[in-house]
Amino acid sequence: MRSLTERLLDYCYKILNGEIKACKKHKQAIERFLNDVNRIPDDDYEYYFDGEELEDFYEWSRMFKHTKGVLAGQHIELTDFQLFLCANILCWKEKKTHLRRIRKVFIQLARKNAKTQIMALIASYIAFLSDEQEEIYIGATTREQSQILYNELLSQIEVVDDLKGKYKDSYGRVTTNRTRSVIQALSKEARKSGDGKNPSVGIIDEYHQHPDDGIYETLKTGMVARTQPLLMVITTAGMDLESPCMREYNYVSKIIDPESVVENDQYFVLICELDEGDDIKDESNWIKANPIVATYEAGLKSIRDDLKIALEVEEKMIAFLTKNMNLWVQMKPGGYMNLAKWNRCGLAGRKLDRMPDTRGKEIYIGVDLSSTLDLTSVAFTIPIGNEEYVVYSHSFMPEERLKEKMATDNVPYQTWVRQGWITLTDGDVVDYDYVEKYILDKVEEMGWICKILCYDEWNATQFANTMIDNGYSAVKVIQGMKTLAPGTKEFRDSVYKQKVFHDDNPVLNWALGNAIKREDHNENFMLDKKASSNRIDPAAAIMTAHAHARFAYGMGDLNEGLSDDYLDKLGW
Prior knowledge:
Layout: H1 4-16, H2 24-39, E1 47-49, H3 51-62, H4 80-90, E2 92-94, E3 104-108, H5 115-129, E4 135-140, H6 143-158, E5 167-169, E6 173-176, E7 182-187, E8 201-205, H7 214-221, E9 230-235, H8 244-256, E10 267-271, H9 297-312, H10 314-324, H11 339-343, H12 347-350, E11 362-368, E12 376-385, E13 388-398, H13 402-409, H14 413-419, E14 422-425, H15 432-446, E15 449-455, H16 457-469, E16 474-476, H17 481-496, E17 500-501, H18 506-514, E18 517-519, E19 525-527, H19 537-549, H20 564-570
Parallel strand pairs: 3-9, 3-10, 4-7, 4-8, 8-9, 11-15, 13-14, 13-17, 15-16
Antiparallel strand pairs: 1-2, 5-6, 6-7, 11-12, 12-13, 18-19
Helix pairs in contact: 1-2, 1-4, 3-4, 5-6, 9-10, 17-19
């Protein structure tokens, strides 16, 4: 009978030789593991693989039963995929200290692939069998989410006779009798984020839902006194490419990339997703994101049913791609921009080290001065030929409102100020003198020729008059469907055709990700500030500028969307 270690290695080889289909990042994780196995005999290699620990965990898991699905009530038998996951987390040890090697874990899988089950097993294994007083916390944004994993763990241990009388469960907290180790669910909603605690294990559940890294950082910094801390992120893909989860995804993707210089021996990474270009209708591809669900008929049927609905209802496709295919898609239901396509237009996406030369070009300026208390934004749109545009954006915020806005909006305004994307103005309202000076200085610095300054007549008339006194041509852009829809659609089309260049401004990226579109019965659309849950001011400024910038290439009737007084001014 082969050992579990032999079974584990056999699984790895089946992945690499194509017997089991897997995505690129899954294969990279396998290759990373095998490379480490080959280095064990080297005297200067710090780690070894503890096969006995794998046997112990396997026997521990067999004590429990499936709590949900087609296997509910049956004893858990770890799949090869789960064996690989747990072996990496628990079985690599330091040669000198025999402590666990892995300190951080990032696991991204499609839904229903037993992420919750395996995390519950690891948590109970450490809590009940460790000789230390462990503190294990499950962190989530809502009470309901944090309870999902906690309830799974409780359901597992409650039916095991050998554990009866060996722990207490009260007020959402399991405490073991032997070492007084605890397992507890935390959430911001319940005002329990882990502050003041000394966690040995932290589990961040569905990290893509976290608007900030508050819980993550609280648990991480609380572990400094622990000898073998373990911080585990489990998640599916999400719909916010500016989220802390996406930033972590980008970082860990570099760790497992053999061509990257980024290294972190104490970080285990496992990402299962469709590869770029994979056909979502090809069922053989589904196992890439669903290493468990796609191995049995009921699981495949569930994906088929979800795909059928997604193909019929456009709004459901985003959820299918993120939840079933584990693909990051920046486009909320009703969202305006697919940020993956937007990012491909940036310097990083194009692999450029500088923006195109725009000196001497005519520019269109859009301003969004929607509220003296909110973000105020300026956009510069420059047609550069070949129906291409260069766009820049800058925003302003009252200095005295900074802390308040950081708390209410859950975004790193202070970091963006430090990086130069946002300018703070004196006082508690935006001082438009700063905006005026910024525009004048920027135009002079870049050597631009201002074609038109576009503004919303409702709140920027005085500002426009001031700019006219400075020699600028200013045009009011009525904030309505007829005026804004053509440019809003044309701008997105240009992005999708990669006809736009931008400098990866994180404030503009965030705003475009927040933007929700409002459509009329003729399928025209514009940005909807009321429906957008977060601020979209930088995006709104872009659309105001593009209402006229598109005419540089004869996009549509030149009279379309122009205000009456401007037509009069032109003599039309």
